[in-house]
Design goal:
Blueprint: H1 7-24, E1 26-31, E2 34-46, E3 57-59, H2 60-72, E4 78-88, H3 90-101, E5 107-115, H4 119-123, E6 128-131, E7 136-139, H5 152-171, H6 177-184, E8 196-199, H7 200-206, E9 211-212, H8 215-228, H9 231-234, H10 252-257, H11 265-271
Parallel strand pairs: 2-3, 2-4, 4-5, 5-6, 6-9
Antiparallel strand pairs: 1-2, 7-8
Helix pairs in contact: 2-3
């Protein structure tokens, strides 16, 4: 009995893959290392309002359920996120970043071209983060367009929203909150705004990214994680995070520490979602 797929079936499968790339900017590839889902975050990160016609966007209503399905899938072993984004809606960007940071499966983020504004939390959300030598990041304060009420409460809201971004970036990279705020409020880089523009090696030196690299480096980092994190262990349900003893609340580092129990000590050191220790060397992955 012939079990070979027919030509129409092969063409239909190929058309399905093409549609997935066109509609969602993602693809799934299986090789000797396992199955990798590649997701792109491009253009403007769209919020609750629809972006103007002709603007390339990443829609959170597409990405959030896709990330949930990747986490629960028995077929996907790792996630590679390619970023080339100008930023966009703050809360939508943070929502996607939190989803990636909360995944138990191997994740690697690679910044290509630009990872500006709210793209920075997305760039640091992976367990291993890389940035192309020619890529750049623009770090600047929160901006808002449209009608605003000029009241102290408005400025206080901006400050609190900015603190959410600062805390997330500091918790998922080597940079401190104080240094990130300094870069955010710097006045020497941009003629018409405050903020800083950092490139590949500068981002690594500041502690924002783990290391400079390209696609092959990102894939190698992902394959190393996949080898140390078998599929059954990566997709198992996480135990509830213990409450912090001093305050009775579970802080960001306490909540994320439960994920590191799924693998060996070297893997925990390389992929911990909490702030990485000072002695962390991104060039010497396990």
């Amino acid at each position: 009995m012939n079990t070979e797929p027919t030509k129409p079936a092969q063409e239909e499968e190929e058309d399905s893959r093409v549609r997935q790339i066109v509609d969602l900017g993602s693809s799934v590839v299986t090789n000797d290392h396992g199955t990798v889902h590649c997701l792109t975050v491009i253009g403007q990160i769209e919020g609750h309002g629809q972006a103007p016609s002709g603007t390339k966007t990443t829609k959170y209503e597409h990405v959030l359920p896709l990330l949930a399905s990747i986490e629960e899938s028995q077929e996907v072993d790792g996630l590679l996120v390619l970023l080339h984004t100008m930023g966009g809606d703050v809360e939508a960007g943070l929502a996607i970043a939190e989803m990636i940071a909360g995944m138990t499966k191997p994740t690697v983020t690679l910044v290509l071209g630009g990872g500006h504004s709210i793209g920075i939390p997305l760039a640091v959300s992976g367990k291993v983060t890389l940035m192309a030598p020619s890529a750049s990041m623009t770090i600047h304060p929160i901006r808002m367009s449209g009608l605003m009420i000029a009241a102290p409460q408005t400025y206080h809201y901006f400050e609190r929203l900015q603190d959410r971004i600062t805390r997330f970036v500091a918790a998922h990279s080597h940079i401190t909150e104080e240094r990130f705020r300094q870069l955010m409020l710097s006045s020497g880089d941009m003629a018409n705004d405050v903020g800083s523009i950092v490139y590949g090696e500068e981002a690594v030196a500041e502690g924002l990214m783990d290391r400079v690299g390209t696609l092959s480096d990102a894939l190698n980092a992902l394959y190393r994680q996949m080898e140390q994190c078998p599929r059954k262990r990566c997709t198992m349900q996480l135990p509830a995070a213990p409450a912090a003893a001093a305050t009775g609340r579970s802080g960001p580092q306490t909540a994320r520490s439960a994920q590191t129990d799924l693998s060996s000590a070297p893997y925990r050191e390389a992929t911990s979602l909490s702030r990485r220790p000072a002695q962390w060397n991104p060039l010497r992955l396990p």
